[in-house]
Design a protein that fits this description.
mainly alpha; 242 residues
């Protein structure tokens, strides 16, 4: 077992992840909720519905973080052939899918009072839906190879890696095509409209809180998938001995 495999195997069960990370996550989530509902000013045009923004953008970035990990560990699995890399890739994809669904739902909840419709085939919405479907497909193909030792796992890992390319497309869609989705204002040039300082502060806290929360969920998921893999491995071995 090399250093990378050892780290990936032991990290989800280490003291920091088991004891410190849950407490850190709880504190950050409380700070994020307090900031979103108590500290951030009410937006002049949209009113309180704009506060969904502090959930919507962080969940989108959290899903990108998850799928970035899936891409990275899928490449490592194809290269190193280590099951633990596959566990991390799948664990990240599962959490990424959940947060992509939350992102789409929060966007719909925000869009209804602002645009007047729950859904429109907008470039960003559509490309985000495609991202969701790609990673659902990734998990479905993985399910055909529970032990991750056959060609289906290699196919799934390839899909998990290349599907990440949809994320730059999502990010640039509002610039390349006409879209109802607002233009980026968080990192907009100084000459363009930008968020007030209070909103930026709350947004940064919410992004950190959600991503730390997501990383904690991924480590939990890695332990679950690892245990499932061990059980399936034992059952398969016993069946072969019969």
């Amino acid at each position: 077992m090399n250093n990378l495999e050892t780290i990936l195997e032991k990290f989800p069960s280490c003291f920091f992840v088991q004891k410190i990370l849950p407490v850190l996550t709880f504190v950050l989530i409380i700070a994020f909720l307090a900031g979103a509902f108590l500290y951030a000013p009410t937006e002049v045009v949209e009113g309180d519905v704009q506060r969904i923004f502090y959930f919507h953008l962080p969940t989108a970035l959290a899903s990108y973080f998850c799928f970035g990990l899936t891409c990275l560990f899928s490449i490592l699995f194809l290269w190193k052939k280590q099951p633990i890399c596959n566990h991390w890739a799948k664990a990240s994809a599962i959490i990424g899918i959940i947060f992509t669904c939350i992102c789409l739902w929060s966007g719909m909840a925000w869009g209804k009072p602002v645009w007047g419709v729950w859904w429109t085939w907008d470039a960003r919405l559509t490309s985000t839906l495609v991202l969701l479907l790609l990673y659902i497909g990734y998990l479905l193909i993985h399910s055909l190879d529970p032990l991750g030792e056959g060609r289906y796992s290699k196919i799934a890992s390839f899909i998990g890696a290349i599907s990440f390319l949809d994320i730059p497309l999502i990010n640039m869609s509002v610039r390349w095509w006409r879209t109802l989705h607002p233009q980026p204002i968080v990192l907009a040039p100084i000459s363009e409209e930008r968020l007030p300082t209070e909103m930026v502060t709350v947004l940064l806290i919410s992004i950190i809180a959600i991503i730390v929360f997501v990383f904690w969920l991924i480590t939990i998921n890695v332990r679950i998938i690892k245990n499932q893999y061990t059980i399936k491995k034992v059952i398969t071995k016993k069946l072969k001995e019969i």
